[in-house]
Amino acid sequence: MDKLTSMIADMKLVVGETYVIHTVEDLLVFEYDGSADKALPDAVVLPSNTTEVASIVKIALENEIPIIARGAGTGLSGGAVAKGGGLVLSLTRMNKILEINSKDHMAIVEPGVVNIDLSHSAEKYGLYYAPDPSSQKACTIGGNVAENSGGPHCLAYGVTTNHILGMEVVLSDGSTQWLGSNTREFQGYDLRGIMVGSEGTLGIVTKIAVRLLKKPESVRTLLAVFKHIEQASSAVSGIIAAGIVPAAIEMMDHICISAAEAAVKAGYPQDAGAILLVEVDGLTEEVAEETEEIERICDNYNPIEIRKATSMEDREKLWEGRKGVLGALGRLAPNYYLVDGTIPRTKLMEVLSGISDIAKKSGLPIANLLHAGDGNLHPSVLYDERIPGQTKVALDAGAEILKLCVDSGGVLSGEHGIGLEKQEYMPLMFTQEDMDAMSKLKPAFITMDMLNPGKIFPTGTPHVQISQGPAVARTGAGAYK
Ligand SMILES: Cc1cc2nc3c(=O)[nH]c(=O)nc-3n(C[C@H](O)[C@H](O)[C@H](O)COP(=O)(O)OP(=O)(O)OC[C@H]3O[C@@H](n4cnc5c(N)ncnc54)[C@H](O)[C@@H]3O)c2cc1C
Fold this sequence. Notes:
The protein is of the alpha+beta class. The protein folds into 3 domains: about 1-215, Uridine Diphospho-n-acetylenolpyruvylglucosamine Reductase, domain 3, CATH 3.30.465.10; about 220-330, Alpha-Beta Plaits; about 330-465, Alpha-Beta Plaits. It is about 35% helix and about 20% strand. A hairpin with a 4-residue loop joins β18 and β19. About 50% of the residues are buried.
């Protein structure tokens, strides 16, 4: 019996026959996440509790097979893709909300809990979980922790790390540890902070203690419509310069507006060059004052229209358009390559104009979607992988955008992580000494490099080559027929 066959047999004894997947046709769906990267894992295992996770990790260690943790597979940097094969450990069966403590405003959840389900469950106590990636109807809290995810409302409330109190992790020797605490205070090194954003390379997160926030007394949502993206960018700078920190400031360009409108009918005007979706929340009087101030600032930049949501349905519709825009881009092209750079907000206009030049040079449309308040850009290069050579053109355009972000004083990732996608570009920001210092953390947590190896740090293989690696799903001419 070869190593993989015997490992599959051992894992079936731990989790049951049904929860080990190993035939090629069943593995196919695990080749992907939301990025351009694909690779076929050797097997997938779906444990139901921490003890099973620990047993699986020990089996993988004995067989020296790498483990790639996986939540919902919505990641946009190839983090859950098993480049080079290995065992995908899917946490989706561990999806219980174990405790909601309404007095202390915290909850303990399993990693496979879908982000929005936590806020829905906390609603009856007047509480919610603040980090809200636009993928929140699908992505898991475990994936959010691993990527330190953000979302539209992270401008005022902070990203995932600001809402994680502690977590249970299974380390690569199969031991289980609790890092951090269940309260905001803890002593000693902040190992919780190290685990958040470590992209599954240091441990498998099996339980998470999160902060819950009290739902605000009042919320106002405003749609500001502009003819030109430059006016919308100036309005963002104006709002921030006035010292206002809204809960969210999202920007969409003309391409995003038409795609979202066709898909969702959110009421975005089709003739707009750009829209801003601004939300303010808090105490009723403060919200009223800030909304007026924001309207005044937007007025300085000749908006076509400023519209306030007048009901909860109105507000939800406006957000549905924003949160559904990536899916809606599928109406314009079969593939998009979504880039995730963050820049100083003052450089918004300059960088957007650079992106427009890159679009012209590449011959591919680039749709701009921004968490504008925190300078987090999501230019999406639209392409068709069936056209020979077009994937490379799209990835090269993405690489140029990332360089532009770093050159403007920004960073490689605002929220989607480095994964496979951006490892080649780490030297744009970090010296070899910086990266060596970061990678010295690994031996403190893991006995051998078997947790999501080949992610984050440069492997010497260009991304375009990584993403074009062998996979079962057909790509190139003839795919989707
Ligand atoms: C339409 C769309 C919109 C999006 N919007 C946003 C947004 O607004 N903000 C944002 O930040 N992101 C966004 N994303 C990206 C993505 O949803 C997030 O990165 C999310 O946190 C990934 O969660 P997941 O459960 O899908 O994780 P996966 O994609 O399955 O995994 C992501 C990474 O986490 C690791 N991992 C997963 N679970 C665990 C665990 N239990 N223990 C250790 N490691 C683990 C994996 O190994 C991998 O490295 C969006 C994606 C899509 C498709």
